[in-house]
TrEMBL record:
UniProt KW keywords: Glycoprotein, Hydrolase, Membrane, Signal, Transmembrane, Transmembrane helix
Protein name as annotated: GDSL esterase/lipase
Provenance organism: Gossypium australe
Pfam families xrefs: Lipase_GDSL
Spans through the membrane: 9-28
Length: 372
């Protein structure tokens, strides 16, 4: 499992990724055929798991190599070697990748907007770019876009499209991670209802502005991230059979259980609304627990980082900084930089989502096409 020296980052052939998908994911070819008759509209809210450039636009920087090496062949303002789950889901609907809301250089919002920002959480509320701030940005976009279109502006979204749009939410991981920095396990659990309330408020705000179709991801196995393991895995009794930190994963499961209840509650309360709850936790944990079955090696080790096995994560030498090393084949790794995932892993996550087996109700992603 070799690494290459800093600054050398060979491209992973497309063939390698597609062979993984061909061998292990027979459902994918049937899932990605879009049935949309009009361009789907997607409004996405979240953190680094789905940020396609909002953070880079907001602070005026780009990420350094080897980020983006696999697909884009250069840093693409994403914390990955290639595409994210949201990119693959857009591909499945035959629509362009989402443009960040903060992109001021020739943005195209005809297929929606990405409000997700790296580091975002549900709380604190007024700290950029919390979920509350992201929804506030959406509400401004909601009020301005149709009016500007009437005045001749292009590359925006019309009034009727907001009702037919898909609203995707993937947030909560940073809330749990930050809570563990200074709280006990029981105190973290006590905070979870406040995170859920923020997600509830966000959905209500979008519903009141015409939103009817919601796609809600739960949070992944935080205790399996190489970052957490490298910094905190000191007591073997806290690790499960696959080497993940149980307290972190148990907190994620508690968050997810409450999020699922919220989705059930909102289905009863909101009129003519579809809310799909997606079990991302099970998808990601299955890949880690059964990594070899999917063609992956060292499921708890970062491809790009510093320190070598077992986790290759160093808080002072992150991926791209002086002293980092990077694996030859990202397609063999699940974790890209200790916190974020490789394109190969994201491709599998997306295909599992598209299978509908992890969704409640089990609706195809194509159900959310803007066909009206």
């Amino acid at each position: 499992m070799g690494v290459v020296k800093e600054g050398r980052y060979p491209l992973v052939p497309f063939f390698t990724l597609y062979m993984i998908l061909f061998l292990y994911l027979p459902l994918l070819p049937h899932s990605v055929h879009c049935q949309c008759t009009k361009t789907p509209i997607i409004f996405n809210f979240g953190d680094s798991n789905s940020d396609t450039g909002g953070y880079a636009d907001g602070v005026g920087l780009n990420f350094s190599p080897p980020n983006g090496r696999t697909y884009f062949h250069q840093p693409a303002r994403r914390l990955s070697d290639g595409r994210l789950m949201i990119d693959f889901l857009c591909e499945s609907l035959n629509t362009d990748y989402l443009t960040p809301y903060l992109n001021s250089l020739g943005p195209n919002f005809t297929n929606g907007v990405n409000f997700a920002i790296i580091g975002s959480a549900t709380l604190p509320r007024y700290v950029p770019f919390s979920l509350f701030v992201q929804v506030s940005q959406f509400l401004r976009f909601r009020s301005r876009s149709p009016a500007l279109m009437l005045n001749g502006y292009k590359d925006l979204v019309g009034d009727e499209d907001f009702e037919n749009a898909l609203y995707t939410i993937d947030i909560g991981q940073n809330d749990l991670a930050a809570s563990f920095d200074n709280l006990t396990y029981s105190q973290v659990i006590e905070r979870i209802p406040s995170f859920i309330t923020e997600i509830k408020n966000a959905i209500w705000n979008m519903y009141e502005k015409g939103g009817k179709k919601f796609w809600v991801h739960n949070t992944g196995p935080l205790g399996c991230l190489p970052q957490k393991l490298a910094l905190l895995a000191r007591n073997a009794t806290e690790l499960d059979e696959h080497g993940c930190l149980q307290p972190f994963n148990n907190a994620a499961k508690t968050f997810n259980a409450q999020l699922r209840v919220l989705c059930e509650q909102l289905r009863r309360e909101l009129i003519n609304v579809t809310i799909v709850y997606v079990d991302i936790y099970s998808i990601k944990y299955d890949l880690i627990a059964n990594a070899s079955n999917y063609g992956f090696e060292s499921p708890l080790m970062a491809c790009c980082g510093n320190g070598g096995p077992p986790y290759n994560y160093n808080a002072n030498i992150n991926c791209g900084r002086t002293g980092y090393t990077v694996c030859h084949e990202g397609s063999k790794f699940i974790s890209w930089d200790g916190v974020h995932y490789t394109e190969a892993a994201n491709a599998i996550f997306a295909s599992k989502i598209l299978s509908t087996h992890y969704s409640t109700p089990q609706l195809s992603f194509n159900f959310f096409c803007n066909n009206m």
